[in-house]
Records
---
Amino acid sequence: MNYAQHVLTHLRKDLRLEWRTKDSINGMLFFALLVVVVLAIAFDPASYPTMTRQISGGLLWVALLFAAMTALNQSWARETSNNVLDAHRLSAAPASALFLGKALANFLFVTAVEVVLAPIFTVFYNLHPLGETWKLLIILPLGTWALVVNGTFFAALSLRSRNRETLLPLVLLPISIPALLAMIQATTSVLTGEFEPTLWIKVLVAYVIVFTIACVLLFETILTAD
Amino acid sequence: MIPFHTLSQRHLVYAYCVVWLLEFGYGAWLAVQWRKSKG
Amino acid sequence: MPKWALAWFGLTLVVLAFGFFKAMTAPTEATMGNLYRVFFYHLPHTILSFVFPYLNCGASFLYLFWRSRNVERAAAADAFALASAEVTVLYSTVGLATGMLWGRAAWGIWWAWDARMTTYLLLWLLYVSYLLVRRFSSVGQTAVISAVLAIFAAIDVPICFMSIRWWRTQHPAAVFGGGADSGIDPSMVPAVLWNMLAWAMWGAFVLGLRYAIERRRQRQANAYALGFLGDEGSSVFQETR
């Protein structure tokens, strides 16, 4: 089997496991929905359309970030039962293939949540993007991958620590700040149409490239940490 | 003796005190750890 | 403690005192009055807080490199990484605190989300998270995991700085090496340099001491572990992490 086939195997395994229980996706979806509703209570979207457009980008990504974190912790939890993790370490398959498979699976889950959430967002906040909406098709996947790649990596890193759930946000948030800034700015620029998102898309691309390489190279080190 | 009337003066004093507190506090903690480590 | 360490400590205290004297006797600034003297402590700490993280990153790389080749050196590298991370958090906390106190009194705001300040906060957050990872991770893994995190942190800081700089700039124009406005009055330079030296010496001292403490703890933990194999172990002092 070549590398791509290893990745696909891991990906299919995660998708199949998720499909059976649908825990992650349902959890994420309702969490994100809840965040959207609660935030709508905090300010009045209907009366202040300009302000709503200016902050909706940030709100969307905050909702997705929190939702993704609930799923990320869980995604490695299923590898801890039945000594599955030891099996991964012992196998001859490259460790980074496990990482990429899982990261891709998480990416697909969060994207599924986005696909449902974006129309709901538009409806609840009366969003009417003034910029070029097609650019969101680049920005959303890039941003999601930026969050998920580091999230999956750090979720694996904190796998055997105590306070695992609190450790992940503590470590992930500072590292993700440049990416969050870029994705929020890019989304806001499309919604408000006030400036061009090109700079921020470039930042996202650079971030994604640098950190995907770093994660793939260093995953084996943390998998075999002890 | 130490100027403390305006906000400016107070913040100058606070800033220097904070620096000394943090730095020498850490130094003191290290000294305690060093003594304990001789164990 | 060895003689040279005590001598260094003594010399550091002397330089610190002299730096303080220079800071207090430097000529008063036109717009801000005496408040600007915070700068003599703020600047050395902020500059040094960018040196220690890269020491930490270097030590982390060395740890990962020596991990399977030379265990004793790897342990030393790990101890150095921990020590430099703690000193980073210390110096960046001081930088943040002095900056905020100065900013509030001088410009009326405690905080602004410009490139420098946000990156600085991020630096602080990253190294606090490093220390927390060390504390919360399971014992055998601590060194490896924190080494990996250190590498990520070191990559992240410049990326953050550049991206936020494009976003906004409110920090006063760079004092050294900035545009036409930069550079401080030559009469203030000695005070800056003496304080830079003083806090660098203090940082080196504290780093070395923390390193030595950690090395002792490592040796004692090893002796304790070996004790289970039947050797006589010495009394163990609790981990300080």
---
Amino acid sequence: MRKVFVIAGIVGAVFVAALIVANLCMFVVHERDQVVVTRLNKPVHVIVGDRPPEVFDQVKQDILNVARRDADSIDLRVSMGAGLYFKMPFADTVERFPDVLMTYDAEPESVVLADKKTLVVDNFARWRIENPLLFRISVQSVTAANGRLDDVIYSAVREELGKNNLTEVIRSTNDYVADAVPQAEEGDPEALESENTMRERISLGREKIMEAVMKRANDRAREQFGIRVVDVSIKRADLLEENFQAVYGRMSAERSRISKGYRSEGSKQADIIMGNTDLQVQVLLANAEREAAELRGQADAEAIGIFAETFNSNPKLYTFMRSLEVLEESMQPGTEAIVSADSGLFRLLKDYKP
Amino acid sequence: MSERKSFKPEIIRHGGAGGGGFDMKKFRPNLAKIIGPLLLLLLVFWLVRGGPAYTVAPGEEGLLLTFGHYTRTTGPGFHFKLPWPIQTVEFANIGEVKRLEVGFRSEVVGESTSYRDFQNDPTMLSEAQMLTGDENVVNCSMAVQYQVLNSREYLFNFGPGEVEFMLKAVAEAALRQAVGDHPINDVLTTGKFQIMGEIKDEMQELVDITGAGVKIHDVFLQDVQPPREVAQAFHDVASAREERERIINEARAYQSEQIPRAEGEAERIKLSAMGYKESRVAEAQGAVSKFAAIMKQYDQSPEITRSRLYLETMSTLLPNLKLTIVDESAGVMNLKSLDMPRPQPAQQQQQPYAGGAQ
């Protein structure tokens, strides 16, 4: 039992010694890290994160330039990638910097645009440390970097946005412009309302403006802080609180115009439908009357034809029969009449000649 | 035995308790008592955290690093590795579809979910409020579903939790950019589907330039509303639209009432004219055949027929008349009998031969 502990103790001591030696002579660079090794405060080794070869060559050159700027003679190694690296015990200090993308969310700032409208812009930037040595010298920590970036990005945002109108900042494409026109021509009151502003063409748009902001910010940040600004985007762009009231007023006015448009459109359509209905009704009835008159005419003509054919064969008889009928019809029961005793069959009353 | 050797460094790291054989005689009984459980505990800890093996949960990927350098990706299950500090492993959940909320927050308490959104929370309002392409203001809330696609990019291009923070900002930026390209009507009504597609594409693009290894699956616009201050005006537009439909429908109702009625009326007029025609012809034919029959007799004996016709008529006519017969040759007139009421005006009478009389 005792022997076991002795062996264990010896093995342990060897292990500890090995770890201590390893810790003094070697260090691990994680995938998420970049490292600057300084020997008695003089940079001797820079290990950057994985980069494409051409980018690495450029970065290496930049790092060497920074080192040359600060010292006459340099003895600096630049490596790339994570892994196990050696250092000189006691003399070398390993300083780690993140090799990840960082998101910097700025405080909202008000920016005056070219058309004198004020916009409260909340933007964010994504950046990474490209030149750890320059970053180590000029910035030192990520927290400090956010402050520097604030200055750089905000001034770039202010400059680029100040050259553009509100429409340019809000919209990114002219895609909708083509759509707006045919809809409006169909007479949709809502499309008509938005047509005016949507028809305005933009020359740049938000995406291009922000690209310019990014380039401007990146140029400065790279040169001054060894930071690469990957992208600057507008998270929020709002109007000032007092401007909102004006916008709400305008929106209400627009909507009430649209409402009125709908209502009068409705009564217009209704009037058209009702007018057409009345017209159709009149046409229907008039046509029917015309056809009826035609039919009656035909009937009369036909009847006349029938009569004429037969009665012409004996006009005398016809006249006689018709006279009798007229007589019969005109003499209603109870009609009083004064007749001469010399007429017709009354002659028999006076003078009978068998 | 071999196990004990390998966990020795752990012991030393945690306070150097295994200080070799120094003063063994004095501490030996105590050491045995303390070290036994301690070793066991450390063994367990080492096995779990840094030992020679690890397991990857379903839906996860384990990324093996040798001295901080990426070596390989391992799938779910049991895997061997070199012990700490040589190899370490980091995990990324690639199976889970994660969710991100803009302009609202859902909080699950027990079985019910409560929402904080732009209607009841000012901070959500500032997140949801945005300008449209025609410079109107609209409030939008949105949910985004995404998934880790490339665990290596996800783990090594961003610090822990940084991807989520970045995605939140990107989602807001993409939402505002897409809404800023459309007029308010599109955002509120017909354009939602297209806008969601645009947001999704824009988000993916913004994510890809940083190599976050994330795929945006879906973007859902949740609640899209005009600001409360102008809501009334928007509702009025909706009711005006309804009213337009109502007025038009009323007119259509009038149309569908009037047209058939007029069609019926027209048909009636035509039919009555047809009836007139039929009866007119039939009457004419009737009269004609009667006349033809009489004419036949007349042709045989004209005098008799004439007399008979005359006398027949008289025999029906005379009994109904109040006759005053005057003998002109007598030269006497009974004036009293002339004192009689004015004759009644002749009544409208049917004339079957009216046409024939023309």
